[in-house]
Amino acid sequence: MQAFNLYLATTVHVTFAHVFRPTRYGDGDAVATAMRVKATAMLDDAFEMIDKKTLDGRRCVHGDDYTISDPYLLVFSRWLDRSKLLFEAAT
Questions:
Q1: Which of 19, 44, 61, 69 sits at a 20 to 30 Å CA gap from 53?
Q2: Which of 53, 73, 71, 49 is nearest to 63 (CA)?
Q3: Degrees to nearest 5, angle at CA 85 with 82 and 89
Q4: Smallest Cα–Cα separation from 7: which of 49, 44, 36?
Q5: CB atoms < 10 A from the CB of 90, how many?
């Protein structure tokens, strides 16, 4: 569980920062758009890996028991909807 939560915190969470606040990491509209494109591809890869590990019929992220990973992942699933809206508006 700890490894999964660390992956969410250090990879998925950080990648969303490049989608939501690209100007924090670079200047200009072209840079922001490029960052969003790259970050979106990285998120696609991250969630594909998460799906492969968790979409096997289990009730919760780590099996049958609800853990802190479940609401943490839910936050990111909500952010996916928001990030797609931001990306579409920027392109």
A1: 19
A2: 53
A3: 145
A4: 49
A5: 13
Q: What is the pTM of this model?
A: 0.82
Taking the C-alpha atoms of residue 65 and residue 12, their distance in angstroms, rounded to an integer, is 23
15 is in which domain, residue-wise? 2-90
Q: What total of structural domains would you count in the chain? A: 1
CATH number reported for the structural domain that contains residue 86 in this entry: 1.20.1050.10
Query: Is 19:87 a contact under the CB 8 Å cutoff?
Result: yes
For residue range 60-88, list pLDDT tens digits in order: 999 999 999 999 999 998 888 776 655 56
Q: Which two tokens stand for residue 39?
A: 């970050």
Contact (Cβ atoms closer than 8 angstroms) between residue 82 and residue 90:
no
Q: Return the number of other C-beta atoms located less than 10 Å from residue 5's C-beta.
A: 15
pLDDT tens-digit readout, 3-49: 999 999 999 999 999 988 998 989 999 998 899 889 988 998 999 99
